[in-house]
Amino acid sequence: MKRFLGNGKNFNLLIFPFLALAFFILIALSNQHVFRNDKAVMYTYIKSARQGRIGYGFNSYYGNDISFAGLEPGDLILGAYPGCAYGRFSHAGIYLGKGKIMESYGDLGVNVQSISHYREYSEVCLLRVKADPAVKKRAVDYVSKRQGAMFYPLAFKNGERYWNCTKIMWKAYFEQGLDFDPENDFWVAPDLFYKSHLVEVIREKRV
Asked: CATH 3.60.150.10: does it fit domain 76-206?
């Protein structure tokens, strides 16, 4: 009996790595297009890690004095810290109007903040989505209804339980027929919005 129990414990220890490997293989086979795309977010993470860039970047107060004048509901705001692992930009938000943005961050989850906190970033970029005002209003309504939802930094695009700063913006416009990620990556990085043909740069400034 003791020998049988011992073998059972060894079996339990071995089955989890095999299940994890099988799960990874299943994901890889179902998403071969992502692994073939050398611009996929995961490859950006790997390259950044090799260069010593991990996470959000060098968080500090940089006093960026970019003007927020002329922003309209549905506009997108990108912020950058030096050394960010995600690419050029570290964070993103969507403008609600009256100096307020909706974003998803840390233990606050999806929440409304003052746009003024983008003064903290070393670089800020304001983007206008090339869409009818009615489309942008529906995108704003979408994110507004999810205030208080949970945050997870590596939230996959599927599902509506967990969010990060970029997923909620992508999803809000995806539901309106605009896809900022035509390559269908696992995650949406802030840089994808900046590079998209669906936006135009209103202004940008680096400290």
From this structure: no
